[in-house]
Amino acid sequence: MNDPQPANRRRGALLRLPSPALTIACIALFVALGGVSYGLATGSIDSREIADNTIRSKDVRDNSVYSRDLRNNDVRDIDIRNGTIKGRDVAKGTLTGDNVNMAKLGQVPDAAALGGRPAADYAAAGPIRLVGTSGEAVVFAPGVSALGGQDLAPGFWKEGVTVQLQGAVDGTGDLFTLPAGYRPAGRARFHVPSDSGADGTLTVSAAGEVSTAVADAVLDGVSFRAAAP
Predict the structure, then answer these.
(1) Which of 133, 159, 138 is nearest to 224 (CA)?
(2) 46 burial class (0-12, 13-18, 19+ CB within 10 angstroms)?
(3) Which of 141, 181, 187, 202 has the CB geometry, 3.0–4.6 Å to 192, for a possible disulfide?
(4) Which of 129, 157, 159 is nearest to 220 (CA)?
C-alpha cells in the first residue's frame, strides 16, 4: 500500500502562511500602488510622486507658471534663455544700476546722429564760454547798456544745445542780437523779473534779436534750445 504521509506533507506545505517579511513587503506594495492610483484618480499628484528631473518645459502648459509659484531667488540668469526677457516682463521701478552689467551694454541706435544732430551737440565740449565776460563783449543796441551794480555783465553761454542768458540790462526795446548757433528755432518768450520791481516779457526771435518792454530786465535763468545749424 502507498504511504499517505508524503501527500499530506505536500498539502501542508502548500497551505503554509507567508513569512512576516513577505507580508510587510506586500502591504507596502499595495499602499504604494494605492497612493499613486488615488493621485491619478483625483488629479492631486504632488512632488512625492514625481522623480527628480523628469519634468521638462514641454510638460508645462504655456502661461501657467506665475511668480507666486517660484521661491524667491530660485531663478538665476543661467535659467533664462538669452533674448527672452522683454521690457513688459519687468515690473516698473524694479531695476537699478546694480542690476545692469554696463560692460555688456551696446551702442544706442543712431547715437552718432540723435534727432538728426551729431552726438557732440548733446555734451559740453571744454569749458563753458561766457560772452561779455571773457573778451567777446555783447554789442548793445543804441541806448542800451549793462545795469550797474550787478555781479554778472549781460551775456550768454552755451552748454551742449542749451543757450542761457545772464546779467541785467539797462534799457528797453531791442537789447542785442545773438550770433548764429545761439538762436532758437522760433520766437521764444520768457517772463523775466525787473531790477526795479516791474516784471515783464523778454522775447528772443529766430534771428537772435533779444528785446523787452520792461526796464532793468534781469536775464538770469532765461534758457532755450539752440536751433540746428
Answers:
(1) 159
(2) exposed
(3) 202
(4) 157
